[in-house]
Input
Amino acid sequence: MLKKRYVGRFAPTPSGPLHFGSLVTALASYLDARSHGGDWHVRIDDLDSPRVVNGAEKRIFTSLEKHGLEWDGPIVRQSSHRDLYQSALENLDKQGLLFACDCSRRKLAGRIKYPGTCRDLNRSNLAHSALRVRVPDQPYEFNDLVQGIYTENLTCTVGDFVVSRRDGIPSYQMAVVIDDDEQEVSHIMRGADLMDNTARQLCLREKLNLSLPRYAHVPVFTHSSGVKLSKHSEATAIDDRFPSQNLQTALQLLGQPVPAEKTVDELLASACANWERAMVPKTPSIIDFVSV
Ligand SMILES: [Zn+2]
Output
């Protein structure tokens, strides 16, 4: 059997500038791909249009370029995949796996697991409702390349989950599975805050008969105060004027040797040559890198 080609990706939401935590994730997936002779793609997760901020996309590209993280091929946008999402939904529906759910956010407030309220109502009109997929009572297991073995039975955790929102936008779980499959992504290296989304994605891949990628969840880095460095926190955008220093700090956080080289290209070449996936910590070390 032919060994599958390594294809990695970085998929930011254009809801703000790139933050340090995202740079660390981008760098990890970039180095893992490049050190395995793989391709590395950038995809813009722009489906959730209310969260999309004008100009954010361009700032993200600029930051990636300043840090030497050059991607392969054209930028892909989720908004160009609407037909693919639709046919995947039809596929699930034909298998009898979907049901309409009109439970309000308020009704489900505070619940982690969907209680199955609408599961057996057998409503034939699926329009204007959220759509959920029936999850099987079975464990989904994967061997994460950073975190190790992870097992989850969805009937015990989240229950039947949303694949299409009431406003017709596919859920993150649905979109990311289709996007990654369309780009033939073989290795998904992303933030560990998405670890507990993976079983839902494995379930969808199984139901849609899609091949399984390898997963690697890198720690999500925080301020010393413990605030997650995401676009939702007050964390500041990375300072594109100091790309070498930013890369050195990111490498340190990823447990990699920190080269003394000065230019971005030299740093990345050295980091790629020395990349050791096994050295990536499972949990974040807390470093006050904001002062770097
Ligand atoms: Zn419901």
